[in-house]
Amino acid sequence: MTGSLFAASQRTVAPFRYDIVGSFLRSDALKEARKRFAQGRITQRELRQVEDAEIAQLVAKQKALGLRAVTDGEYRRSWWHLDFLWNLDGVRKVAAEQGSIAFKERQTKAETIEIVSKVGFSCHPFIEDFKAVQTFAGDSPAKFTIPSPSMLHLITAVRNQQYKPLKRYRDNDTLLADIAATYKKAVAAFYEAGCRYLQFDDTSWGEFCSEEKRAGYIARGFDMDRLERDYVSMINEALSERPVDMTVTMHICRGNFRSTWFSSGGYEPVAEILFGNTKVDGFFLEYDSDRAGDFSPLRFMKDQQVVLGLVSSKTGQLEDKQSIIERLREATDYLPVNQLCLSPQCGFASTEEGKNFLVIRRPPRYTPGRTLFPYTTLFRSSCPA
C-alpha cells in the first residue's frame, strides 16, 4: 500500500474525490414531453421548456447532495453518443437492421450513423445545451459529456462490416486526421462557451478488452495494436490545443444498456498503450464487477487521476460500504491514494430508456475530513425492476 486511505487531500479541481459519470434517469415529465413531441403534439420550443425545467430540478438535487460538479443528466439526448455524432458535419443518422453492437439479452433501437461527406464541426446544438446547464449550475462546475473521437471511427469504419469509404477516406489516415481536427474544433467551441470540465465517453476500449472481440477484429484483418495506437494519437491530437485550465477526462466501460453489457475482460490488453500514452487528466474506469478484471493494469498510469467505478448503476442492490473501502485499499497497491477518486461505473441512463429500478436518493451521511470517499450509492433505490 502506497499510503493511508484517509490521508489523501481533498481535490479542488476536477475530477473530484467523489464524482459522477454523467447521465441520469429521465423523469416521467420529460418522457411524456418527448413522446408528445414525437407525435407532433408539442413544438420544439415547448419540449425545450420542459427539458429546461427538468434539468434545473436535477441540477438543484445534485448540488443539494453535495456533488462538486453537476451535469444535465444527458436529458436532451436519446443516446449517450449518437446524438452528438449525427450532428457533426458529414455524418448522418440512418436506420439499421439492429444497433451497431449487440448487448446481452437486450437490443437497442435499430439506428446508427454513417459518414456521407467530409467530417467537420460547426453550429452544433450541444454548445447551446452546455450553456443552458452552465446557467443552472451557477457557481458549481458544469461537467459535459460527449463521445470520444474513437467512437465515430469505430462505429462507421470498424464495426460496420459493409463499410465502403468515401473517395476522400480511402486512406484511413485522412479519416483519422479529419476526426481529430473536428474534435479539436469541438473542444475549442466548448471552452469558448465556458466549459472547463469535458469528458470523452469511450466504449471502444472496453470492447478491445475482450479477447473474443479482439479475435473477431483480427480475423477481419484489423491490426489491433495499430488501431489502438491510432486512437490514442487521434485523441491526443484533438486535445493538443486545449487550454491548461480545461479538464478533460475519459470514461471507459463495457456497455450499459438497461443494466446489460456487450463486453467482458480486464484492461491488461490495452493498458500500456491507453493509460501510458493518452493525454487526458483522468480516467473514469468501470470496476464494479469481475468482468473488468483486477487493478494491476493501473501500474501503467502516468499522472492521471483514476476515478474507480466501484459503485454499480446496473443494479438496485446497494454495495457494502466496507467492501468499497477495501477495494480502494487494494488499488493503492498500484497508485498513490491521492491519485484515486470514486464514482459509479457508468451513468444511470446511457440511453433514454434508462433503468426502471434506479432513482436518485439522498447519500448516506458523511463527515468532511473524516471520510475521504463518501459512500456514493447516491442515485439508487433498492426496489426491484
Write a structural description.
The chain has 385 residues and is of the alpha/beta class. It has one domain (5-344): TIM Barrel, CATH 3.20.20. Helices cover 34% and strands 13% of the residues. It contains eleven helices and eight strands. Helix 5 runs antiparallel to helix 6.
Keywords:
TIM Barrel; disordered C terminus; 385 residues; 11 helices; globular; alpha/beta; two-stranded antiparallel ribbon; six-stranded parallel beta sheet
Can you describe this structure in just a few lines?
This protein is of the alpha/beta class. Helix content is 34%, strand content 13%.
Mean pLDDT: 87
Strand order of the largest sheet: 3-4-5-6-7-8
The proportion of residues forming helix, as a percent range, comes to 25-40%
Which spans of ≥5 residues are poorly predicted at pLDDT below 50?
356-385
What is the beta-strand fraction?
5-15%
Kindly report how far apart the N and C termini lie: 39 Å
Give, in order, the helices and strands. Answer: HHHEEHEHHEHHHEHEEHE
